[in-house]
Amino acid sequence: MVAGRLRIVLTVTQGTASYQGWLSIANATVQIGTFGDYRLGPFNSIFSAGERALGVVNMLLQGTNFGLGQKVDVDGVIISGVNTQYTMPPTAYQNSQVLYLTYLTNPQQSDVDRILQWLEEQQNRVLIVQFDNSATNSNMMQTLGLNFVAGTTIAAYTFTADQAPDFIQDGVFGTVEQNFSYNCRDDTYGTLVPDNARAAGFTPVLLSQGGTPGNYVLAVNPSRRIIVCGDCDIWSNVNAGSGGYLLNLTAASSIIDPANPAHVIIGNLWAWITEIAWTVGA
């Protein structure tokens, strides 16, 4: 086991993804939305994930989802964290394949430039950027050509299969029904105007319903391997909004349910991330 690295081993057969090697996820451990630090192994934290990220962290650490002989055939998972907010030292992510800029991070422009250089140096790296409010990762968002728009009103998010990437709609963990609602938690989230996001190369996964209907809340730029997310509560296992499916994956109950499209969307997204890490330029 290599300290500071997340290992996921996956191969692709019918209905299964399987690639051998370590997948490393680096992130900041500032509390809201952090994935924490699990270099000691699954559910054995140096720094626990924040409540608003526990759903996805529980999913990744669950061996029935991402484990030997499972849908995503993984050898192990390690998530590393650094206690930072306004800087992101290269030592924190240079040996990682995934870098997650969390809800409370906002790296300086010099750090942003280094992060994007790191991303382009190897085609098996993925960047995830939160933009929950105008101060969240604002330098990175501006550099990516994305304009923040505040979300308003509590409402579920919409998934539209005709707009989402194929690997989300029909992936390792199943096929997602058209136009289902993904529950949200509160009215603090960010969105992107579709014309602006499309011009920057982003394809929508989840759209806002309230305040700015149709704006992007979760989007992917497949060619640049960048994911942007306007609501860290999408990763949460506790959702307070109404009218939609929940991720609600707890440590005690974190197996992906193929009948729950919220589970399938996030599971398919992370299966794609792992595929990038081990089949593109690796």
Protein described:
The chain has 282 residues and is α/β, with parallel strands linked by helices. The chain contains 6 helices and 15 strands. It has helices spanning 54-61, 109-121, 138-143, 166-169, 194-199, 261-279, and strands at residues 17-18, 24-28, 72-73, 78-82, 98-101, 126-130, 148-150, 157-158, 170-171, 174-175, 181-182, 190-192, 203-207, 216-221, 226-229. The strands form 5 sheets. A 7-stranded mixed β-sheet has the order 4-2-5-6-15-14-13. A two-stranded parallel sheet has the order 1-3. A hairpin with a 4-residue loop joins strand 14 and strand 15 (226-229). The chain starts with 16 loop residues before the first strand and ends with a helix. 54% of the residues are buried. The model is unreliable at 1-14 (pLDDT under 50).
User: What level of helicity do the residues show?
Assistant: 10-25%
Rg calc: 17 Å
Low-confidence stretches: 1-14
Q: Per the principal axes of the C-alpha atoms, what is the gross shape?
A: globular
> Which oligomerization state do the chains in this entry correspond to?
single chain
Structural class: alpha/beta
Mean of residue pLDDT values: 84
Main-sheet strand order equals 4-2-5-6-15-14-13
How many individual β-strands? 15
Q: Which sheet architecture does the biggest sheet show?
A: 7 strands, mixed
**Helical region count?**
6
- Proportion of beta-strand residues: 15-25%
